[in-house]
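Students often ask why we bother encoding 3D structure as a string. The short answer is that it lets us treat folding as translation between two languages. Here is a chain of 489 residues written in the first language.
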Amino acid sequence: MINKSLKELGAMLQGKEISSVELTQEYLNRINRLNPEINAYITIDAEKSLAQAKHADALLADGKSTALTGLPIAQKDIFVAKGWRTTCGSKMLEKFIGPYDADVIERFDGVGAVNLGKTNMDEFAMGSSNETSYFGKVQNPWDRTRVPGGSSGGSAAAVAARLCAAATGTDTGGSIRQPASLCGLSGLKPTYGLTSRFGMIAFASSLDQSGPMARSCEDMALMMNVMTGFDERDSTSLNRPKEDYTRDLNKPLAGLKVGLPKEFFAEGLSADVAKVVQDAIAEYKKLGAEIVDISLPNTKLSIPVYYVLAPAEASSNLSRYDGVRYGHRAKEYTDLMDMYCKSRAEGFGAEVKRRILIGTYVLSAGYYDAYYLKAQQIRRLIAQDFENAFKQCDIIMGPTAPSTAFKAGEKADDPVAMYLQDIYTIAVNLAGLPGMSIPAGFTQSTDGKRLPVGLQVIGNYFDEARMLNVGHAYQQATDWHTQMPEGIE
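And here it is in the second language, the structure alphabet:
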């Protein structure tokens, strides 16, 4: 049962082969058994999950169900959920109970899906390894000594270890796609504004976007049908007609032009990862795609641009955590300013403090024009690179990450090396484009462990349906997405 897709599980629920309560309990049992080691979840509330499952069974019995009714979905702990502890992986929000539901939570509740729990994440979504969480690091199910990627590492590990049917994530610079690559699953960052950010705890507001993480593109299409839509509570939400993201899944790929950026296959890409990606592209040729060489010349600038803009926005967004209204408050202080300083010093971890300091610096008087304004200008050039590229091709492909999952602690003392893990993903966020990672094969570590490799698929604005079609066609021709980590039973 745990290896069945959302569509297959939905059919079982519709056919009364199993109830949502039984299915939810099966996942809760697995979480109780495996999560103490993997640490994919921060908060589980079996009573709440089973109550939702019972409600879903009533909807199914009354014939009022939809495609995701009764299916257990894990929610990244960055989404506020009413009555659920919502921590964002930080001591600052360790005891915070959500007073309302984020738009994403509302939408899944509205179709009768089951909230299975809140997944672990890098603190305030700042990290590429899930090692900055106050609640401890997450282990990669493919090799417990390695990281699952971040910041949506808990969601990725939960899907890979079959601790949920699917999960939500958020992506600011690659935080859905990179962990999807490292954990061997599918993950999609939609076009900026396509999913609401209401109730999603902010890191960098012009970059953050929620998206689905699942075993297949077909499953992600079903989730996209629920997650997307206009929300007047979010000023960046786009008011456009709803789409059915399953509509083009089975279209043939003949005539599809796939662009390969030369910058994605240059120095810094692991040779074994490059081989897996090239093999995947060869498979696309067999499926009828035409390969086109393209260039994204400003790709090399995406990392420095991102690490000016994202910390600048973070320093502003995180100023609300001052110990006054909610969040951690220091026990001892002399005056209001001392309370602010001590509460923030105690409540934030090292990586969050580092980014707040950088962001405050680049926004300060005398440095704004030199850093922040210049970064915004280069951001426009990066977007123009993609605009020019899509005049030559329909879809862009390349590696999701420069390497497979690295050992826990390996890059903890080298922030720049950690930041470079997102070299192929960040430009997509800066341009506001949709990007996706799908399983493309494996490399083998020196100790004999199979390590997943992700293929990144980048589309033009609002081209998610075509991207899912491109991914689904590949997954119909290969079985990488069906592979399961050893020891996960």
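Translate back mentally: The mean pLDDT is 96. Keep this in mind for the problem set.
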